[in-house]
Amino acid sequence: MKRTDFTFRKAWMIYTVYILLLFTSTANAQQTSRLVSLELKNEKLSAALKQIEKMGGKNILFAYEETENYHVTASIRKQTQGEAIRTVLKGKPFNSIERTDYFVIQRKGKDGKTTQVRGTIYGERNEPLAYANVILLATTDSSFITGCVTAEDGSFILPGNNEKKHLLKVTYIGYQSLTLPCQPENDIRLQPDAQMLKEVTVTASRPMVERKNGAFVANVAGTPLSMLGSASDMIGHLPFVTGSDGNYTVIGRGKPDIYINGRKVRDSSELDQLQANEILSAEIVTTPGARYSSNVSSVIRLRTIRKRGQGLSANAYADYTQGHSAKGKQGASLNYRTGGLDIFVKGHFNESDTYSTSHTQLQLSTSSEWKSISDNVNRAHDANFNGEVGFNYEPDDHQSFGIRYVPKTGLGNQELYAQGETVMLRDGEEVDRLTSDSHGRKHTNWNHTVNGYYNGTFGKWNIDFNADYLYGRSGGGQKVDNNGETDATSDSEVKNRLYAAKLVITAPLGQGKLSFGTEETFTERHDIFKQSGFSNDADNRIKQSIASAFADYSIELGQFDLTAGLRYEYQKTDYYESDVYKVEKSPAYHDLIPVAGIFYKKEDWNIGLSYRMKKFSPSYSMLSSTISYQSKYQYHNGNPELEPQKHNLFSLEGGWKWINTSLYFNHVRNMYTTYAKPYDDAKHPGVVLWTMASIPNSYAYGGAVVLSPKFGWWQPQFTVSVSWFQSNARSLNIQPLWNEAQPDFILNNSFTLPRGWFLNIKGRLALGAKQSYAIRKTEGTVDAQLTKSFLKDRALRISLVANDIFRTGTYHFRVYGDRTYNEFENYADKQRFGIRLNYQFNATKNKYKGKGAGESEKGRL
What is the C-alpha separation between 848 and 456, in angstroms, rounded? Predict the structure, then answer.
């Protein structure tokens, strides 16, 4: 592993994080609550505490019977909640202690010492249980006195009175409720609920994977998933999900859309900022409803833990990894909440040096037999900034609205370098040997995104409205030298614009629930391309309008859940070349997108059958006719005549306790493919054009089984999947047609160790197979992550990461084309070792509920 130079910018990144940590620590001491101002005249102490609780934001736990006989007269002016509490308790036999989410009022005994009820709740195997309910009851009539939930380490504190006897009642999902005499110190162990466990010999304190409402629900809080660093790190460990670093795939369904508390994730840096221990659950939806865009094949919905609190909260993080080259990112977010107003600002910086090597053998059969053998080294440097600022306001419990502005820009040019050597053979004899040196640059100007939303509930009706605007520009160029002489140059410029709106109304209908609404999107993209003579200049403008109406209905009939939905989409494209309208490249489409499902659940068993049609429109780069220069013997372009790709996806899913399965069958019409063909044998002999086309009919089918039991401190998750893919491309003069099974194995091991240490080791093995006109070779990787939390309430978290430990993640791919055959081998610097630091205080998630509109078009832009 080669070490790169440690630049001043990387040093500045680390220095900035230390400044952020210092700032947030200082701010924590000053801003953990709102300021309180009160005039109290002979007010009951209990009433005074309730007023301070309302103004300060944090809950105050105390026993009414102990405070009722005390009165307060005091003038409180601009004090923090803690200071105000100490003011009203002055001269009285009480003291207070502050926890993350609440204050506890403790009574002092006759000896002047404070009295309190402390303890820790443990599971069957002595693991601390987070978020267990603990209630203090009166011994005489079991009436409620006070209560709380346990912290992440299973601990709790309640106000107590050693002179009186009380009871403690503890409840936790999956365990038997327990009521016992209250002691000053209580270490309580719960036993699993026998009715739930029955004859199961392998148990978990909380099931990591469940099946609810047609989705696989992974419980994150209280499971090993909560220890896996950031949300970006954690998602790749979810059941039926593969991938990392923002590039994820749901087995058999493709790339998912990701939502956080109902809001679409637009940039993967959001997943770096969200920590896994802030997430309550993750739902993997394999059959999205009609409210989702027609191109959404699967959805991952993250729900965060709802935390109380007012005032200022902050989060700062830094991430550094070293492989052959270095990558670093850092960010900070501030959130200020007062009453129903929530104001937030975020910043994320990223700097990366990427490195990859490739070996290619490309054969071309035309008037001669051509073969090129290339070895290339690719390097790139990129730095960018993403920001976010906005507000959310909740005038009452039933309404909220807000605006979010997201600026993005590159910090300087993105620099791309490629060096290589190519040997060209014609009929077995060497005719050319090239030493190439390519330099590309890309600059992203300021991109602007604005989202506004309104969400309101009126009785049993709910209205959810979103509106979006996006504008962006980018440009770049390329210069290629072969054997020391400039062979090709090009320059490009791209402009994007989007307007979108989405309305969803939900209301009861009969015994079920109806959701209906509309979504409208307008986009415009302008591409200008100029080159030195290897192809043609281009000036393309594409305008597209999409109008949709949709309805979803769901009803529960005993142990069955039925869902059905329909989405209508109208899509019109206007294509211009040098401002000349091209009718033949400007189609209009009318599509109906149905979705339906039936789900059955009884005790620990569940099964579901569902169907969804999906439609994918080609990205704007896929529609571009611009011919770009890859090398002297390889060019690349898109195809403006590509039609939307349609999928008919059937899913059969089920499970029993910690065993879950998923089967799928997908019939694809007009599937997009990138393939190689001769460019121009007469004028450019030996040159290959990589282009795009549609294949009329393709079939993908397979299944997966996920096992997630628990053995004490070891939580394994074993995934076995197998897939088949049959795509007949003979209409493109591609002759092979194979359909071998491709197995894939993933073993994900999580070890919950003493003193807060956590270790995860994940291994994957994908066996090779011949499918359609391509050949995949066997490949695999082993990754590891060690995590430890420090400071009060685990505010500081450090993770050590090792990816592709044995450097086995080389990608091998062989593919046939139109009179071509290509062998490709690539290693993208996957072996990396790094560290991630995250510090947060007064962690309060902002309440922004905007979900965004026109999300599919944003992705295409």
Answer: 13
Q: Which two tokens stand for residue 739?
A: 């359909």
760: tokens are 């995860």
Residues in contact with 683: Cβ distance below 8 Å, sequence separation at least 6, in sequence order: none
Residue whose pair of structure tokens reads 């090239």 in the numeric block? 434
Q: Shortest CA distance to 442 belongs to which of 267, 575, 628?
A: 628
Contact 166, 182 (CB under 8 A): yes
The reply to whether 646 and 794 lie within a common domain is no
Closest CA to 486 of 437, 415, 522: 437
Retrieve residue 1's tokens. Answer: 């592993």
Four-CA torsion 144, 148, 154, 155, nearest 10 degrees: -90
- Looking at residue 175, what DSSP letter applies? B
Q: Number of folded domains in the chain?
A: 5
Both tokens of 481, joined, read: 């030298």
- Out of 249, 271, 301, pick the residue that ends a domain: 301
Residue 123 lies in a domain: yes
**pLDDT of residue 406 exceeding 50:** yes
Structure tokens at 392: 């959310």
C-alpha distances in angstroms, 440 versus 102, 475, 530? 56, 11, 14
The H or E element that residue 750 is part of is strand 742-752
Residue 10 predicted with pLDDT over 80: no
Give the CA count within 13 Å in the CB-facing half-sphere of 557: 8
> Is residue 20 predicted with pLDDT exceeding 50?
no
- Cross-strand bridge partners of residue 538: 529
**Can you tell me whether residue 775 is helix, strand or coil?**
strand
Q: Is the separation of the CB atoms in 338 and 378 below 8 Å?
A: no
- In 603-713 the beta strands, taken as DSSP E runs, fall at 605-616, 628-631, 634-636, 645-656, 659-680, 684-707
Quote the pTM value: 0.71
**CB contact set of 209 (below 8 Å; sequence gap of 6+):** 216, 217, 218, 219, 239, 655, 658, 660, 706, 708
pLDDT, tens only, 200-247? 333 334 567 777 777 888 888 878 888 887 888 889 899 889 888 778
Percent of the chain with pLDDT over 90: 40
What whole-number distance in Å separates Cα of residue 123 and Cα of residue 180? 16
Residue 163 near residue 97 (C-beta atoms within 8 A): no
Residue 60's alpha-carbon distances to 97, 166, 686, in angstroms, are 10, 20, 78
- Let me know whether 224 and 102 are in one domain: no
Please give the torsion angle defined by the CA atoms of residues 762, 358, 678 and 689, in that order, rounded to the nearest 10 degrees.
80
- Burial (CB < 10 A; 0-12, 13-18, 19+), residue 494, is buried
Q: Could you list the residue range(s) of the whole structural domain that residue 213 is in?
A: 200-301
- For residues 85 and 121, membership in a common domain is answered with no
- Rounded Cα distance between 332 and 644, Å, is 40
